[in-house]
Structures are given as C-alpha cells and as structure tokens.
Amino acid sequence: MTKMAAVYTSFVLIMLLMVSSCLCYCPLEKSYNTGNCSYRFHCIRVIQDIGLPEHCQGSTNYHVKVNVYLSDAIDRFDKSMNPKFLYSITSLRASGVWPQTNLSLIQYMPQLQTLNISGNQIEKITENAFYTLTQLEYLDLSHNRLSDVEGLFEFEMLPNRMRHLNLAHNEIQQIPSSAFENLTSLIELDLSYNLISYLDENSFDNLTNLETLRLNNNNIKNQIGALNALGNLTNLYLSKNEIQIIDDDSLELLKHLVILDVSWNQLDVLTPELFLRHWQHFEGRAVCKILLSENHLTFLPNATSVELMSRFTRHDHHKKRVDVLTKLDLSKNSITTIEYNAFRYLVRLTSLDLSQNKLTNFRVNADDLVYIEYLNLSKNYITQLNLECFLSMNRLQNLDLSNNYIDGIPDLLFINNYQLKRIDMKFNDLKVLENLHIKIFHPDEGILDLSNNAIYKMNIPSGEGMRLKKLMLQSNNISDPTNIDLKHQIDLEHIDMSNNYIQYLNSSSLCLPTNITHLDLSYNDISKIAPATFHKFRQLKTLRLSHNDLTGIEYGIFQGMTSLVYLNLSNNDISYLDSKVFIDLRSLYILSIEHNSMIFLDYKGWVAHKHELKVYIDGNNFTCDWLGTALSDYNNNFSKMRPYALNGGTGKHSLQGIPCVQKEIGELVQIDSKSGTLTDSDRLLAVNLKILEAIKNQTYVLRKFMWHSLYAESKNI
Ligand SMILES: *[C@@H]1O[C@H](CO)[C@@H](O)[C@H](O)[C@H]1NC(C)=O
Ligand SMILES: *[C@@H]1O[C@H](CO)[C@@H](O)[C@H](O)[C@H]1NC(C)=O
Ligand SMILES: *[C@@H]1O[C@H](CO)[C@@H](O)[C@H](O)[C@H]1NC(C)=O
Ligand SMILES: *[C@@H]1O[C@H](CO)[C@@H](O)[C@H](O)[C@H]1NC(C)=O
Ligand SMILES: *[C@@H]1O[C@H](CO)[C@@H](O)[C@H](O)[C@H]1NC(C)=O
Ligand SMILES: *[C@@H]1O[C@H](CO)[C@@H](O)[C@H](O)[C@H]1NC(C)=O
Ligand SMILES: *[C@@H]1O[C@H](CO)[C@@H](O)[C@H](O)[C@H]1NC(C)=O
Ligand SMILES: *[C@@H]1O[C@H](CO)[C@@H](O)[C@H](O)[C@H]1NC(C)=O
Ligand SMILES: *[C@@H]1O[C@H](CO)[C@@H](O)[C@H](O)[C@H]1NC(C)=O
Ligand SMILES: *[C@@H]1O[C@H](CO)[C@@H](O)[C@H](O)[C@H]1NC(C)=O
Ligand SMILES: *[C@@H]1O[C@H](CO)[C@@H](O)[C@H](O)[C@H]1NC(C)=O
Ligand SMILES: *[C@@H]1O[C@H](CO)[C@@H](O)[C@H](O)[C@H]1NC(C)=O
C-alpha cells in the first residue's frame, strides 16, 4: 500500500510540474536584466504572467527598454494579458505561422521601435496594421509570402520615423505608387528576392533620405530612371535582374552612388558616363564600387565629351583633399575591345577586374592606371604584355595574369613596381625566363606563381627579386634543375618544383639560395640522390620527395640538415631504410614513408633522438611482429619512434589502428620479421642514456645547491 502511495504522489508531482511549466509562458530563467529598466524576455506562445518592477512602470526617470522574443507565437490578444507590460515593449521578435494576420497583438504596443516578424509565412496583413506604431524605426517583414503591400505603411502620425524596412524574400510583383509615400525617414529599403518586374516612377518619390536600396534578385528590366528622385541614395543593388540597358535618364542618379551593383544582368552596351562619379556627394571621401560582372558586354568605348571631362577632372581645383577611389568589376563578360580612353571618367581606379573576358591584349591610357593596386586579367586570350601600361602602375600589389597565352615577360615590365605582393602567371606559355627583372616585392608578401607553364630554364639576376619569398614552379618542364638559377634571391623561403621531370640530384644540382625553408620536389622522376645534395640548405624545415622513383636512401644524402622538421619519402620504391641515414636530422619531427612496399625499418638510430618522431608507415609490408615490437619499444620509452598510419586499418592485420602483414607459415619471407627492431643491449643502452641524463640533472642540482651554500657561507664570514 505504502509503495502504491509513493508511486501515486510522484505521479501527482510530475503532473504538477507539467502543469506549472505550461503556465510559465515567459520563464524567469530566460529573462535578463540588461541595465536600469532594461530587460530581455523570451516568451512562448503568448506574453503572459509577466510584469516590470514598480519603478520601471508608468512615468519613470529611466529609459525603459523591453526586448521580447516570442516563439511559437499566437497572434491574438486576450484579457488575461498584462496591457501595462505590453505597453512597455520596445522591441519584439515574434516567430509563428500566421498566413493571415491583423497583428492584433502589436496594437497594444505603441512604444515598439523594432519589430521583427520575419519568417512567419505571412501572406496577408490587414491594412493599417502598423497604424498606431508611431515610434517604429526598424521593421523586418522578410522571408514571408507577402505579395501586396498597398496601404500597409499607413501611420497615425506624420512625419513617420521608420528608418529600416526589410521586405526581402517575399512575393511582391509590383510596388503600388503610393505604398512608401509617407516613409520619408527611410534610410534603408530591402526589396531583394521578390518578383518585381516594373519600377513605377512615383513609388520612390518621397524617399529623399534613402541611402541603401536593395532590388537584387528580381525581374527588373529597364526602368532604373524611376529611382531618380532618390537624391541621397549611395548604395544601389540591382544584381540578378534582367536589365538590358541603362538609359540616359538614369545617369543622373548614378553619379552620386558609392556602390552600384548591376552584376548578373543582360547589359550589352556600356555608356562611359556610367563611370562618372560626382565627388561633391561623398564629402571628399569614398570607395566607389561599380560591379558589372556577368553581363553581355563586348566593348568598352572611349570616354569622349570634353565638356564632361573638364567638369569631372581628377584634379581638384579648390585644393581640397579629395579621397575618392574606384573599384571596377567587369569580369565574366565577353569583352574583346577596350578603347584607349575607356577608363577616363573613373576617379582613381584602384581595383580592376577584367577576368574571364575575351581580351587579346590590355592597352589603355596609362594615366588611368596610376592608382591601380589590384588588376585581374585572368582567363583571357592575352599573348603579350603592354609595357606602357605596366610602367605606370607603380602602386600595383596584386596582379593576376593566369590562364592566358603569355610567352614572355618583357625586360622592363616590372621596373617601376615596388609594392608587388602577388604575381600570378600560372597556366601560360612561358618556357624560358632569362634574367627576369622584378626589382623588389612588398615587405609583407612576395609571391610569384609560375606554375603550369612549360618553363625549363629561368634565372633571376643578383639584385633583382628582392623580398621574393615564395616561388611556385610546379608543373613545368624542368628536367635539369641546374637551369633554374635562383641562388641570389636570399629572401626566398618557399620553392615548389613538384611535378616536373627531374631524374637525378647531386650537391651541385640545386642552384637555390641557402636559406630556403621549404622545398617541394615531389612528383618528379628522381631515382637517385647523391650524398650531400642538400647540405647547403641548413635552414630547410620541410622537404618533400614523395612520388618519385627512389629505391633507397644512401648514407650522407641528408648530411647537415639539422633544421629539417618534416621529411616526406612516401610513394617511392624504397624497401629498406636504416635510421642511421637520418642521423643528422636532429630536429626531425615527422617522417612519411607510406606506400613504399617496405619490409623493414631499422630504428636503432633513433634511440637517442631529441624528441618523439612520428613515422607514417601505412601502405607498406611491415610484419605485425615488427610493428608490435616497434610499438612496445616506443611505449616502454626505449625508442623515440612512434609508428602512425594516415589511413588506418582494423581487424586482425592491424595493431593500434596501423595495418601490418601477418607472416604466414611457408611464405617466402627471407628476413627475420623482427629485423630492425632493438636488441636487448640496445634497450639497455636506452636505459643507460636515461640514467646518464638523470645523473647530469642531479649534478646540476647538486652544483646549484653547493654554490648556494658556499655563497651563504661566504656571506656569513
Ligand atoms: C543605473 O542608474 C544609476 C543611477 O541612476 C547609474 O549610476 C548606473 O550607472 C546605471 N546603470 C546602468 C547600467 O545604466
Ligand atoms: C484580428 O483577428 C482576430 C482573429 O484572428 C479577431 O478576433 C480580432 O477581432 C481582429 N482584430 C481586429 C482589430 O480586427
Ligand atoms: C529577424 O528575425 C530573424 C529570425 O526570425 C532573424 O534571422 C533576423 O536576423 C532578424 N532581423 C533582425 C534585423 O534582427
Ligand atoms: C500619407 O499621408 C497622407 C497625409 O496624411 C495621407 O493622405 C496618405 O493617405 C498617406 N498615404 C499612405 C499610403 O499612408
Ligand atoms: C509624398 O508624396 C506625395 C505625392 O506622391 C505628396 O503629395 C506628399 O505631400 C508627400 N509627402 C511628404 C511627407 O513629403
Ligand atoms: C538628403 O538628406 C538631407 C538630410 O536628410 C536632406 O536635407 C536633403 O534634401 C536630401 N537630399 C536630396 C537630394 O534629397
Ligand atoms: C579613342 O581615343 C584614342 C585616344 O584619344 C584615339 O586614339 C582612338 O582613335 C579613339 N577611338 C575611337 C574609336 O574613337
Ligand atoms: C581573378 O579572377 C579569377 C576569375 O574570375 C579568380 O578566380 C581569381 O581568384 C582572381 N584573382 C585574384 C588574385 O583575386
Ligand atoms: C619540354 O622539354 C622537352 C625537352 O627537354 C621538349 O622536347 C618538350 O617539347 C617540352 N615540352 C613542352 C610542353 O614544352
Ligand atoms: C639568407 O642568407 C644570406 C647569406 O647567404 C643572409 O645574408 C641573409 O640575411 C639570410 N636571410 C635570412 C632571411 O635568413
Ligand atoms: C607487399 O605485399 C603485397 C601484398 O600484400 C605484395 O603484392 C607485394 O609484392 C609486397 N611487396 C613486397 C616488396 O614484398
Ligand atoms: C632532466 O631535466 C630536464 C629539465 O629539467 C627534464 O626535462 C628531463 O626530463 C630530466 N631528465 C630526467 C631523466 O630526469
């Protein structure tokens, strides 16, 4: 009986708990006091059973801020709600499913400044729903299914205060001419991702304060002139529409834009006046962006009108500091021709993207390029580089010439550039670069990408290529590495010569600066490396020799490489390795020898290695006996070598996730499956080394102790 009673009471308790959590619409543990009379609440379903402290109600000295997030919101008001509390709400985000709504709840929240009812599947809002919200500044109606906004933005009091209105991701097809007529304070209007195809001239008439208008991802064709009334507009987003022409009517508006994004449209003609910017509008300071990529442009005509030229001259006659820069994106069009003066109207062009067009050359008025820092000419059909243009670009930092048909770099091309950070010339037709002149790179970065050409010979003379830090030469036609002479470029740290045709290396093969730190020679045909090949390169930290034809490593190959940390010998044909060939590699931390069909690795040489050495060994034929001993020698601290696997294995033929080969009876394995492992005397040696070190430590401590006591004694005297 008592047992039954206990079960019964606990059931009642659970019921009670459930009921009380149901009642708790605005749980206390989800509310925060964020300042004097400033609160954040999270309510579920309805806003109920909640109030503010006495001193924050009614007329109060404090600036009351009440921020409510209502999830699973029900759109209704009933008498059980606390009207005083509703009255005090200043910010509401409500999420629910309200296909039809008259927003009855917010009628009781006249203090609302921010209202977010985004993502509520709203199809229709009753007219005048926001009528009483005279304080509203920020309204987010995005991600709903609104198609009609007629009569929605009517307000009791004018002038209206709304500054931001977000209607993005709805189903609006047309903007009624008077819909926004009283939103005279609006600064930002987002109408992106709708179905708007027509812009009515009167729709935007009163939005004289509007600065940002987003109309991207609609179906707008040609009526940009309808935006002319937007006298303070600075950012106009029109990408992903169906605009075919920017008519003369619209040019007036464009002059004071800082950002004009017309990318992903169907423009096929460009008037040079589109580039004009009237810098009085920018208070002397702006970074203008003109985005025209993904259109159908084929031709950039000369700027012609002399009259306009003088009006918008790039020199300011009033000696006022004018700091207006322009970035122009014309990528992904079909431009074949750029006339000499096409960029005349641009104010200080600093960035020009002409990638993915059909240019065969790039030759424009050099005066228009003097401010250029970024130039992208990638993926065109350029065969030659125009000297005059490049000579004027002495601020150039980032140059992309990749994927063209360039077969040479003119001698003086880079003579005036002192700011270069990256030059990308991959995928061109370069074969020989004799006496390449690139005086000096930027202190922060110096990268030259010459990969995927057909280079077999190159040299940079002494005094050139200063601060060049990284050089990419992979996938070229290098078979004789002595033809790559870079020994004077003492700032070079990183050289990639992978994927070439090098077969043989000796101590005079690599004419590289002695202080490189990274060298990649993988994916060549190297079958033989003579002793002392790398001994000049004492700073080398990473050396990649994977994917070659090496069958063995001779003693002395890695002579003197005391800084090497990472060595990759994977994917060769090495069947046997003796750790003694690595004896100079005191800093070695990772050794990759996967995929070599190796049978054994003698690790005796690493008994006294400075620190743990990770050796990646999968893809070989090590026996499980060998692996077991190697692992136990590591675990017992006899050896510093720790076997690892990049692609682990499971099951019978693996140990600690490392695959191994089970020696089967009758199998023709000539060598002892444990050869290369430590003998007992090696292990004894390891123990002795440790004892020796401990003794050394102790003598040090002893000496310190003795010195201290001697010192103390001498002071006592
Ligand atoms: C709250 O008000 C008191 C005095 O009215 C003031 O000293 C204090 O800085 C205020 N705190 C916050 C977070 O505003
Ligand atoms: C709003 O709609 C609800 C039903 O959804 C209704 O009960 C209420 O009377 C309506 N309020 C107004 C002001 O029309
Ligand atoms: C409005 O709420 C949605 C989620 O409901 C959120 O993604 C969005 O950022 C909010 N808008 C603002 C301006 O906070
Ligand atoms: C804008 O305000 C005027 C003057 O109060 C009013 O006549 C008109 O109906 C309002 N328009 C809208 C769309 O609310
Ligand atoms: C808005 O524009 C209408 C004409 O479309 C005009 O009658 C009205 O006075 C304007 N309202 C304001 C506040 O400028
Ligand atoms: C720009 O805004 C200012 C201040 O808000 C206003 O005085 C001015 O008339 C607007 N300019 C234009 C051209 O509408
Ligand atoms: C463009 O301008 C340049 C320099 O003024 C001139 O040589 C060239 O003929 C012009 N092109 C056309 C088509 O007018
Ligand atoms: C140049 O343009 C191409 C193609 O548009 C792009 O992939 C590449 O990243 C750009 N280069 C730079 C340096 O930004
Ligand atoms: C690469 O160099 C060899 C001579 O070493 C030459 O026969 C071959 O045509 C070159 N390949 C290319 C793509 O230039
Ligand atoms: C590279 O080595 C040269 C001498 O060969 C030396 O003058 C230079 O300072 C070194 N540079 C770096 C970054 O260590
Ligand atoms: C390594 O083992 C595979 C089969 O597991 C065998 O085909 C291959 O010949 C062996 N390689 C050597 C070098 O023993
Ligand atoms: C010797 O001392 C060093 C530094 O205090 C310590 O890292 C090392 O583990 C010690 N060696 C032994 C064997 O105690």
Helix and strand layout, with pairings?
Layout: H1 2-23, E1 32-35, E2 38-44, E3 65-71, H2 83-88, E4 91-94, E5 100-101, E6 114-116, E7 124-125, E8 138-140, E9 164-166, E10 188-190, E11 212-214, E12 235-237, H3 248-254, E13 259-261, E14 285-291, E15 299-300, H4 306-311, E16 323-329, E17 337-338, E18 349-353, E19 374-376, H5 387-392, E20 398-400, E21 422-424, E22 432-433, E23 447-449, E24 457-459, E25 470-472, E26 484-485, E27 494-496, E28 504-505, E29 518-520, E30 528-529, E31 542-544, E32 566-568, E33 576-578, E34 590-592, E35 600-602, E36 613-616, H6 624-635, E37 641-644, E38 654-655, E39 658-659, H7 680-716
Parallel strand pairs: 2-3, 3-4, 4-6, 5-7, 6-8, 8-9, 9-10, 10-11, 11-12, 12-13, 13-14, 14-16, 15-17, 16-18, 18-19, 19-20, 20-21, 21-23, 22-24, 23-25, 24-26, 25-27, 27-29, 28-30, 29-31, 31-32, 32-34, 33-35, 34-36, 36-37
Antiparallel strand pairs: 1-2, 38-39
The protein binds 2-acetamido-2-deoxy-beta-D-glucopyranose (12 copies).
Describe this structure in words.
With 717 residues, this protein is α/β, with parallel strands linked by helices. Among the domains are: 504-678, Alpha-Beta Horseshoe (Leucine-rich repeat, LRR (right-handed beta-alpha superhelix)), CATH 3.80.10; 687-717. Helix 6 links the parallel strand 36 and strand 37 (641-644). One 2-acetamido-2-deoxy-beta-D-glucopyranose (NAG) binds at residues 154, 158, 178, 181-182. Residues 102, 104 line the site of one 2-acetamido-2-deoxy-beta-D-glucopyranose.
